[in-house]
Amino acid sequence: MQSTQIDYLPILMQAGLAIGFVVATIIGSSFLGPKRHSKNKDKNFECGIESVGNARIPFSVKYFLVAILFVLFDVEVIFLYPWAVNFKELGVDGMIKMVIFMLLLLVGFFYIIKKKALEWE
User: Fold this and answer.
1) Residue 23 above 90 pLDDT?
2) Which residues contact residue 86 at a Cβ distance below 8 angstroms, ignoring those fewer than 6 apart?
3) Residue 50 DSSP label
4) Above 70 in pLDDT, residue 46?
5) In angstroms, how far is the first alpha carbon of the chain from the final one?
6) Fewer Cβ close by (within 10 Å): the C or N end of the chain?
7) Are 44 and 56 spatial neighbours (Cβ–Cβ below 8 Å)?
8) Helix axes 87-114, 61-78, angle to 10 degrees
9) What SS3 class is residue 33?
10) Which 8-state DSSP code applies to residue 53?
11) Rounded Cα gap, residues 65 and 119, in angstroms
12) Which residues contact 55 (CB under 8 A, 6 or more apart)?
């Protein structure tokens, strides 16, 4: 089955409509929205709490390490879903490959536990 450039026209029209809607909404809200500025309104505001101190204090590396490890293990767990859906079709070969994958995942998990990467001080 061959496709021509005309087959992509509906996709381009939908993308153009979506981009046009976003641009029109942003421009329209800047013209139609109220423009009331005051010292109190323009203050930095975070979750209902007034800002205290400097925002540029350094974070502990542990925070970033835990965040990266969360993303890493979260993405690895995502691979379990397609495997579970196709479990019967993959058979024993698929089971062996998933056991190897899970063993490697556990080796990495025990490594970060041994390094105490998840412990807070």
Assistant:
1) yes
2) 94
3) E
4) no
5) 61
6) N
7) no
8) 170
9) coil
10) S
11) 11
12) 44
